[in-house]
Structure formats: structure tokens, C-alpha cells
Amino acid sequence: MTRDEPAERIRTDGGTAQGADEVALDPWGSSTIADYRKLFEEFGIEEFDEVLDEVPNPHYLMRRGVIFGHRDYRPVLEAMRDGDDFAVLSGFMPTGDPHIGHKLVFDEIIWHQQQGGDAYGLIADMEAHSARGIDWEEINEHSRDYLLSLIALGFDTEEGELYRQSDNDRLQRLAFELGGKANFSEFEGIYGFDGETNISHMQSVVTQMADILYPQLDEPQPTVIPVGPDQDPHVRFARDLTTRMRFFKVTEAFASFELDDTERLVVAAAYDAREEYAEDPDMPRCGEAADWVADADLDAHGVLVAESVRDSAVEKLENAGMEPLRRRIRFFARQATDEAFEALIEDIEGEKRRYDQHIDAFELDVAEAEELAREVEANHGGYGFIPPSSIYHRFMTGLTGGKMSSSIPASHISLLDDPEDGYDKVKSATTGGRDTAEEQRELGGEADKCPVYELYAYLLTGDDDEFAKEVYDECVNGERLCGGCKEQAATLMREFLEDHQEKREEAKDVLDSLDIDLETERRGVAAEH
């Protein structure tokens, strides 16, 4: 955005550099994300802008691009718009004071609760003890501070649930079941664990998987997990485990033989193109489809696969010969009880064919089939989990540059800081200003690289987009100098901290009335790393 192009919509890039060669997502690391665009390419995170218009009453963090990405958020949005059940959950590792970076997650939980979602906030105390080596006395203190700030910011404890991992028996039982679907090679591949990783750290990962699915224990419902991008490995792993826990695997099929995911793309293209080659397009034969696939320009049909995939699809179609090629939904009895399998067969309406370990249905689409399988599972002793969704927010830049870190006091503002200290930290912060006031007036400031502007966009201007836009435009147009800008930001930060800490005092009675043990006398020493 240049000086001649005032912002139509206030955005922020988090003050990060562009063009990094690699992106490594480590849930316990301290690395920054140098190029958020690479997350779309390398990890399949989708751009939030693509769903923004579908969000009822979007939060300002969404409007300003602070929430930049998502995984499968549409089921949550659909439930939100239709007034159906959905949930939001996120957690906090109590390794230090809650700071303004954590406020992003607090706000996201609270906003979803205000839109009608079942809200859950958890203290990841097992993770803090096993992965970070924090002792239980310190964990107790920090846990209380996180929960007080969450309540002070607007979390409704009467409508939502707060808990500690270590005190939640239902969570632990779920974690045990999920552990039966995970193996060590995955811990190596996803998290880089090795022979030196302590077992408690591994257990804490499975517990986090249970956290993510916890809102669905009583009933399956779309669930969103608001996190920073470094937590994406947890979300992906949880989605995988969700699939493995299901009674039935639901896939699209076209004949009696089985296809892998890439082969299915090829055969689906052949089915869609049957008018081109079939003697009877209403009853195309597998052999006819094999000939078409062998010669077709699959790229032109939007199917980009290796030649080996084409060859394997052709072989399976040729072997099926005169068998009709016909689209159907296939239900595999992955781990369903006999009772559940029989119930599924009974509930499928229309034409169907039963086999030993699967059943084909000819009058259902994939979405209908998934919902039916989930209902049958939930009614016959299974969980019926829906794969969890997630949204991702940018990291806040530290006041001294780099990533905001609890271990570097000058880089962040704690929600417990004395308001005057908060004022002083902002006044001392790095800016995106030019070397001289003259250059600033001539060239304009670099708001997109400025930690102080981030304070406005992420927190200080609240829901007032016009105020945020005014600060941005005045900066990049050279009308706003850093001294006055920091003075205004510092004053607003002091006012925010004063107000927040008053509300924290009011929240103490609310927290004390809840059934949460914040003075646990657990014994044990910190895990070795």
C-alpha cells in the first residue's frame, strides 16, 4: 500500500518479513512465521478472506486480517448462521503471565460464545509440566491468572466450561482411547520426538488431542479451535485421529473394486466424461472407461496425477471388464459393532447392496452418507466425532521487534503489568518510523512493519475500524509522527490495563465459585528434556 493508496480496509501483516524459504511449525518452539503465505502452500491452511463474507457479524480481528487462515471453518459458520449447535475451545499453557498476545485467543473464544457457541477454555497444565518443566506451584499461580483475565474479558462461566487438564477425568479417559489410535512413528514425524523424549510429553500430546475433541463428548457438533499457526500440527493430528475413531469409513465408489484417493479422481473423471465414449451413457462399462482413461488428456479435466496412477486405474477398470461404471457411496465397517452395521443397513434408504464388510448406497451423496454414519455411530456406543475446524491468527510482533515472548519482559505487555509500566513499555517500543521527522513527512511511516501500529490494530482501537484506518492512513501519508503516535498508544494501553485489572478483581468471586482446583498439592519434579 503506497502513500497514494489509502487503506480501504484496515489490514496488518504482523510486522513480518516476506520471502522466507521454509516454514517450520513447532508447538513448543519460539520461531516466528516469516511468510504467512507459505502456510497456504505447505500445510493446506486456507485463506480466511475466502470465508469472511460468510461470517455473521465478523470480529474485528477477522475484518483486519489478523485472523488470516482456517481449516474447514465452513461447518462452524453454517451452524452459526442456522442457529445449530457448535462449539469453540482453546487452551493456555501456564508458563508465565498472560499477555496481550494471549488476548487474541481470549477474544476469539468469547466472540464465538457470543455468537451462540458452547465455549471451553482449558489450562494445559500437563503440557506445561511435561514439555516446559514448570513446577506445580508455579502452574497453580499462572492458571489462576489466565482464568481471571479470560473471565474479565467477557467469558460467561454460566454458559461455558473452564477446566484443568490434570483434573478432568472424562478428558483423561478420552485421551486413553485416542492413544490407542496413535503410534510412535507419528510422534517422530509430526513433532520430531526421538528416544530422548520423555513419555509424559508424549502423553500430554494425546491429552491435547482429547482437549480438541472434548466439546463433542456428549454430542457430535462442529467445533473450532482458535490458535496461532504454530499449533497447526495438533489440529492436523486431531483431525486424523477423529477419522480413525469412526465406526464407518465413507468413500465414493464407482464399481465393485477399491480405489485409492488419487485413482478415484481418475475414475470420477471417466464417469463424468461417459457421454464421450460410452455406447450407452446411462450404463457405461468399465472396459470402455479404461480405454478413455488410457488416451485422455486428464490435465484438461482438472486431474493432475502421476502416470503410475493413470496406469493403475486403467488396470482396475480393464479387469472389471463389462461391469457397469456407476457412482455410489461405500460404507466400510471399519470398527463398527455388528449391531451398528445392521442398523446402518436398515437406515439406508433407496437402492443398496450389502457385502461382508461394506455396503454400497446408490441414492445418497457424500454429505448425507457422512451424517447418517455419524448418527448411527453415536446411537450405538461410538463418539461420531466431526473433524475439528480451526482458525489461525498472526503472531504479535514484540515491542522490541521479533516475536512477542513471555520470557522477554520488554517484548510484551502482561495483562498483570502495572498500567504505568505498560505506558512506559509502549513509549519505549520500536516503531516503523523513518530516521527523521522530515523523512517521515516526505516518505510516510511503515505501519505494516510497526509493532506500535499492531497495538492499535489488534487491541487499542477495539471494534472501531474508522479509528484504526485513521491511524494507518495518517502514518503512511506522513501526517502522523512516531512520538505523538506512541504517546496516544501508551495512554490507551494504560487505560486498557486499568480497566482490565479492575475487571479482574471483580472476576475473582466468579472464579472462586467455580469447581476448579487452583491450589493443587500435586507432587513431582519437572520432566527432563
Summarize the structure in short.
Residues 1-9 and 13-31 have low confidence and may be disordered. This protein has helices at 37-43, 49-52, 60-63, 74-82, 100-114, 125-131, 136-152, 169-179, 184-191, 199-213, 232-245, 261-272, 286-295, 307-320, 338-347, 366-378, 419-427, 437-443, 451-460, 465-476, 482-512; strands at residues 46-47, 67-71, 87-92, 118-123, 161-164, 223-227, 248-253, 328-333, 352-354, 358-361, 389-393. With 529 residues, it is α/β, with parallel strands linked by helices.
Q: What report would you give on this structure?
A:
There is one protein chain. With 529 residues, this protein is α/β, with parallel strands linked by helices. Among the domains are: 37-247 and 387-393, HUPs (Rossmann fold); 249-378, no CATH class. The protein is built from 21 helices and eleven strands. The protein has a seven-stranded mixed sheet with strand order 1-2-11-6-3-4-5, with helices on both faces. A four-stranded antiparallel sheet has the order 7-8-10-9, covered by helices on one side. α13 packs antiparallel against α14, α15 (338-347) packs across α16 (366-378) and α17 (419-427) runs antiparallel to α21 (482-512). The longest helix has 31 residues, at 482-512. Residues 1-9 and 13-31 have low confidence and may be disordered.
